[in-house]
């Protein structure tokens, strides 16, 4: 059960859009539309931002969107804001009642 | 909105058993079809799912930790607990408890986390 692969870091300027990828395998991301994304600010607990690939929980800005193609899921943040600077983690159902997380991506707002 | 709070020793000796409790407030742990999970995060590293328990008491564990993990629920105290045996320094991490409403594979709300250090 290997961790999903995410870029270590991404960056963007305020107002721009960025996309964070999350690559798994045909046993996890590729087989299920059960990918979620979490935002974590330093010293804080993770916060659910996207679930089931593209659904947003109540209260999460519509600047956050999710998608999936094959074995790769993506999180897009549009209209980048300073408060979006955080670590982002993807998570996927991996079969047999297990889940696997990605290694995390540090987003820097320039 | 339910709130979760982890508690337990911050320091555990190698080879001993790590024991943590998550206290649920703002709702009953036994109401609804919810899942209660433990997740950990070593300093500067990513998240690792440890396991979960359903309201009925059924459990599932991360295969890499399964032989050492036990998760249980105490509905009378509105708590669920984690026990991790034979710990080593590699088990040093911030441990989070979380609840799943949107599907057991989704962690809707998290506790603030508690740091557990394994050291003699």
List key phrases describing it.
heterodimer; A: 110 residues; mainly beta; six-stranded mixed beta sheet; three-stranded antiparallel beta sheet; 9 strands; globular; B: 120 residues; four-stranded antiparallel beta sheet; 11 strands
Verbal overview:
The complex is a heterodimer of chains A (110) and B (120). Chain A has strands spanning 9-12, 18-23, 35-40, 47-50, 64-69, 72-77, 86-93, 99-101, 105-109. Chain A has 110 residues and is an all-beta fold. In chain A, strands 1, 3, 4, 7, 8 and 9 form a six-stranded mixed beta sheet that branches. In chain A, a hairpin with a 2-residue loop joins β5 and β6. Chain A is globular and about 40 Å long. In chain B, the strands form two sheets. In chain B, strands 2, 4, 5, 6, 9, 10 and 11 form a seven-stranded mixed beta sheet that branches. The model of chain B has no long low-confidence stretch (mean pLDDT 94). In chain B, a hairpin with an 8-residue loop joins β9 and β10 (109-110). Chain B contains no helices and eleven strands. Chain B has 120 residues and is mostly beta strands. Chain B has strands spanning 3-7, 11-12, 18-25, 35-41, 48-54, 59-61, 69-74, 79-84, 93-100, 109-110, 114-118. Classes of the chains: A mainly beta (110), B mainly beta (120). Chains A and B meet through β7 and β8 of A and β10 of B.
Could you give a quick summary of the protein structure above?
Chain A is mainly beta and 110 residues long.
Which SSEs are present, and which pair or pack?
The complex is a heterodimer of chains A (110) and B (120).
Chain A: E1 9-12, E2 18-23, E3 35-40, E4 47-50, E5 64-69, E6 72-77, E7 86-93, E8 99-101, E9 105-109
Parallel strand pairs in A: 1-9
Antiparallel strand pairs in A: 2-6, 3-4, 3-7, 5-6, 7-8, 7-9
Chain B: E1 3-7, E2 11-12, E3 18-25, E4 35-41, E5 48-54, E6 59-61, E7 69-74, E8 79-84, E9 93-100, E10 109-110, E11 114-118
Parallel strand pairs in B: 2-11
Antiparallel strand pairs in B: 1-3, 3-8, 4-5, 4-9, 5-6, 7-8, 9-10, 9-11
